[in-house]
Structure formats: structure tokens, C-alpha cells
């Protein structure tokens, strides 16, 4: 059995290796990470996160999810939404998210036999998607504009929104006290906003080298998480989310360098987090809930997503076939699985285990990645919404069109990984 140091090193190495393999094979890294984590965990027994991390497991996983939400929230720059894509994207992450949460809650209640509160936790978690799983699928599908921008921006914006909603529902179910939920949320948001002010003041100090901005952002994110948790239990995730949104939308300092957070720290963080989470999956629970999970996936794919997409894209710039393509694209990704795992730990810590949460959400993540990965290109070809030009991805797995658009709106040069290639260069 691996000790703490050896286990920690193994987790990091396996996490990075899984993402490298995923990117090289041009498949969503989350699939590789989940399968690798299950292999080294419950299948072979090489890694037991509970034995390696012990009592540190919950605080470390919770802090890692907090950093992940900070990284995702940095993408929630509202100035990016301009032009024809603005309306359908905003509708998808508001009206569409609400429809998804409510209908997925009812589906989980009926199919899994869960109390409505716990079904609501699953429904809220299933709002999220994410660029790390949408990006590679867009590379396969190669949709035309403005459809590509709508799908890409929805994937970027929906993660922090869905995670915050899921956090609120989880707190309500665990504590059943609206006042406590309000205090928790306000504490976290307040600390996050103070942290954003501190970050801006530090970065604006001209003696600070831009090369250190990522390290400063990491330090501030860790600090606001710790302070918020010290002031009020479970306020840390609210704090890091508020910090990311505030930093992304302030206009005092440029944060070009901070967007490298996801390329470097995020790479290690996501990989390690998913190896730990997947290694804790109970294979018997996966098998036990396989049929209701597949039924839930069928409802999500055939009923819930088309309903949400129809409501959100009505009377938008998208034509009928493009709207149908939006209805055929809603994979779940890293934030869904990670929030499910950390909330499951919270239920365990509160003495009221939620055994269905992790196997059901992990099953939905894997199944939707496979379904949309296989069906997406076929549906796009059938609808005639594909372009002849391949969709290029930047180093974060986000379509280059999004990176270049954000750079143009910010008045800066696009990063080297997203700049157009020289004439004659072929893209894979």
C-alpha cells in the first residue's frame, strides 16, 4: 500500500499522464482520467485515497474543487458575449439551466426513488458541461458559425453557474435553514470580493512581474478559501467562485497571464483530483445503479436537453438545423463529477450518506461523453451544420475561435497557441 508521499506522487503522475494521453488521442481527457482512476483504484487496488490521505481527504478535495471553480470562473467574462451569439448563450445558461435543473430533478426523483431534495442536488449538478469536454467534441463535429461560438461559450459559462446552484441546493438539503444558507453564501461572496480587491491592488503595483501573476492568483484563491471556511463552514466554494468572477470582470488590471492558470496549475489539479475521485468509485454501486442511470441519461439526451435548447434558442440568430444541433450537444464534464464527489463527502461528514450521488453522476458523465461523441458528428452531418475547416483548439482545449474573440474584445494579441498558422499549415 502506498504511503502519503508515494501516494501523492502517484496521484499527480497518473493525473498528468491521463491528460496527456487524452489530448494525444483527441478524446475528452475526463474519460481517460475516470477509467484510469477506476483501474488503479477499485480494479487493481494500487491506490486507496482514503488510506493515503486519511483525514486530509475531505479538506484537500474540497480545496481542490474550490481552485477548480476559481479557474472556471475566470472564464466568466461577460464582455465576451457580444453580437448574435449573446442572446442564445445567455438564455442557455439561465432559462436553459433552470429547465435542466427542474426536469432533471424530477427525473432523478422518479427513476432513482430519491427524496426531492436529494434529487435536486443531482438535478443542479447536471446543469454543468464544461470546455474540457465540449472542446474536443467541437473539434470532431466542426460546426459552422455562429453555432460553434454558442456551443463553446455555453460550455465556458455554465460550469460556475451550475456549480454554484448545486452548492446552494446541497447546503439547503444538509441544513434545511435558508438563513444559514444565506449567511454561508454572503460570507463566501464577501471574502471572495475582498480577495479580488487585494489581487487587483497587488497586481497593479508596478514592481510586480507579470510572470508572477499566476502564483499570486493561486495564493489569493487559497487564502480566500481558507478565510471563508474559517469564518463559516462550507463558504469556501462560494468565495473562490466569487473571486474568479470578480477578477474576470474587473477593468483595472489586465489578467492575460492569469489565464495560464488552467494551462499549468489546472492541468495538475484536474488530473490529480480525478484520479482520487475515480479511485474511490464503488464498482458495485456503479453496477447497482447502472439501469436507472442509463434511463436518466436517455431522458437527459432525448427530452431534457431538446426542451431546454428549444426554449433558450427560440427567435435567436440560429436557424432550425442549428437549433437542433444545440439540442444534440450537452455532455457533462469535470466540474459535474468533482462537485458530486465533494458533496458526497459532505453528506458523509454530516452523517447522512448519499450513496447514489457519485455513481449516478459519474455514470452520466461517461455515458453522455460517449453518446455525444459518437452521435454528434453524425447528427451535424445530417443537419448540414458542419464546416469544411477543422476546429482548432488552444492549450486549454477551448476552440481557438473563442480565444481569438476574447483577445480581440480585450484589445490584446491572441496567445501563441491560438494564433493563425502560417499559410499551408495543415491542422490535425
TrEMBL record:
<feature type="transmembrane region" description="Helical">
    <location>
        <begin position="234"/>
        <end position="253"/>
    </location>
</feature>
<keyword id="KW-1133">Transmembrane helix</keyword>
<keyword id="KW-1003">Cell membrane</keyword>
<dbReference type="Pfam" id="PF00999">
    <property type="entry name" value="Na_H_Exchanger"/>
</dbReference>
<feature type="domain" description="Cation/H+ exchanger transmembrane">
    <location>
        <begin position="14"/>
        <end position="376"/>
    </location>
</feature>
<feature type="transmembrane region" description="Helical">
    <location>
        <begin position="89"/>
        <end position="112"/>
    </location>
</feature>
<keyword id="KW-0406">Ion transport</keyword>
<feature type="transmembrane region" description="Helical">
    <location>
        <begin position="210"/>
        <end position="228"/>
    </location>
</feature>
<keyword id="KW-0050">Antiport</keyword>
<keyword id="KW-0472">Membrane</keyword>
<dbReference type="InterPro" id="IPR006153">
    <property type="entry name" value="Cation/H_exchanger_TM"/>
</dbReference>
<feature type="transmembrane region" description="Helical">
    <location>
        <begin position="289"/>
        <end position="312"/>
    </location>
</feature>
<feature type="transmembrane region" description="Helical">
    <location>
        <begin position="265"/>
        <end position="283"/>
    </location>
</feature>
<keyword id="KW-0812">Transmembrane</keyword>
<feature type="transmembrane region" description="Helical">
    <location>
        <begin position="181"/>
        <end position="203"/>
    </location>
</feature>
<feature type="transmembrane region" description="Helical">
    <location>
        <begin position="357"/>
        <end position="380"/>
    </location>
</feature>
<protein>
    <submittedName>
        <fullName>Cation:proton antiporter</fullName>
    </submittedName>
</protein>
<feature type="transmembrane region" description="Helical">
    <location>
        <begin position="28"/>
        <end position="47"/>
    </location>
</feature>
<feature type="compositionally biased region" description="Pro residues">
    <location>
        <begin position="414"/>
        <end position="428"/>
    </location>
</feature>
<feature type="transmembrane region" description="Helical">
    <location>
        <begin position="324"/>
        <end position="345"/>
    </location>
</feature>
<dbReference type="InterPro" id="IPR038770">
    <property type="entry name" value="Na+/solute_symporter_sf"/>
</dbReference>
<keyword id="KW-0813">Transport</keyword>
<feature type="region of interest" description="Disordered">
    <location>
        <begin position="409"/>
        <end position="428"/>
    </location>
</feature>
<feature type="transmembrane region" description="Helical">
    <location>
        <begin position="118"/>
        <end position="138"/>
    </location>
</feature>
Amino acid at each position: 500500500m502506498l504511503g502519503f508521499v508515494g501516494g501523492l506522487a502517484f496521484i499527480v503522475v497518473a493525473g498528468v499522464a491521463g491528460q496527456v494521453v487524452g489530448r494525444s488521442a483527441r478524446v475528452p481527457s475526463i474519460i481517460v482520467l475516470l477509467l484510469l482512476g477506476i483501474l488503479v483504484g477499485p480494479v487493481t487496488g494500487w491506490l486507496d485515497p482514503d488510506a493515503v490521505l486519511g483525514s486530509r481527504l475531505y479538506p484537500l478535495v474540497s480545496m481542490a474543487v474550490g481552485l477548480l471553480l476559481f479557474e472556471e470562473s475566470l472564464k466568466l467574462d461577460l464582455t465576451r458575449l457580444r453580437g448574435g451569439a449573446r442572446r442564445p448563450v445567455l438564455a442557455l445558461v439561465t432559462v436553459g439551466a433552470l429547465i435542466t435543473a427542474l426536469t432533471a430533478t424530477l427525473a432523478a426523483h422518479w427513476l432513482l426513488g430519491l427524496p426531492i431534495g436529494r434529487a435536486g442536488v443531482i438535478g443542479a449538478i447536471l446543469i454543468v458541461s464544461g470546455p474540457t469536454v465540449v472542446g474536443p467534441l467541437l473539434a470532431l463535429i466542426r460546426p459552422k458559425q455562429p453555432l460553434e461560438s454558442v456551443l463553446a461559450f455555453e460550455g465556458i459559462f455554465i460550469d460556475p453557474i451550475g456549480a454554484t446552484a448545486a452548492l446552494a441546493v446541497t447546503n439547503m438539503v444538509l441544513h434545511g435553514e435558508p438563513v444559514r444558507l444565506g449567511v454561508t453564501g454572503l460570507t463566501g461572496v464577501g471574502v471572495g470580493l475582498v480577495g479580488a480587491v487585494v489581487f487587483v491592488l497587488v497586481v497593479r503595483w508596478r514592481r510586480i512581474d507579470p510572470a508572477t501573476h499566476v502564483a499570486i492568483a493561486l495564493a489569493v484563491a487559497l487564502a480566500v478559501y481558507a478565510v471563508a471556511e474559517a469564518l463559516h463552514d462550507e463558504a469556501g466554494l462560494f468565495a473562490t467562485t466569487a473571486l474568479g468572477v470578480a477578477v474576470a470582470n474587473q477593468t483595472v488590471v489586465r489578467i492575460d497571464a492569469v489565464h495560464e492558470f488552467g494551462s499549468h496549475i489546472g492541468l495538475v489539479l484536474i488530473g490529480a483530483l480525478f484520479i482520487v475521485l475515480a479511485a474511490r468509485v464503488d464498482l458495485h454501486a456503479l453496477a447497482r445503479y447502472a439501469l436507472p442511470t442509463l434511463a436518466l441519461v436517455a431522458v437527459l439526451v432525448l427530452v431534457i436537453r431538446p426542451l431546454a435548447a428549444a426554449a433558450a434558442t427560440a427567435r435567436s440568430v440560429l436557424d432550425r438545423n442549428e437549433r437542433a444541433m444545440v439540442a444534440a450537444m450537452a455532455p457533462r464534464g469535470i466540474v459535474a463529477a468533482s462537485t458530486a464527489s465533494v458533496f458526497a463527502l459532505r453528506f458523509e461528514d454530516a452523517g447522512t450518506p448519499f450513496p447514489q450521488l457519485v455513481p449516478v453522476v459519474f455514470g452520466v458523465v461517461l455515458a453522455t461523453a460517449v453518446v455525444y461523441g459518437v452521435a454528434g458528428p453524425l447528427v451535424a452531418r445530417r443537419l448540414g451544420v458542419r464546416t469544411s475547416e477543422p476546429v482548432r483548439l488552444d492549450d486549454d482545449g477551448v476552440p481557438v475561435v473563442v480565444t481569438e474573440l476574447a483577445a480581440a474584445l480585450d484589445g490584446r494579441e491572441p496567445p501563441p497557441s491560438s494564433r493563425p498558422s502560417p499559410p499551408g499549415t495543415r491542422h490535425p
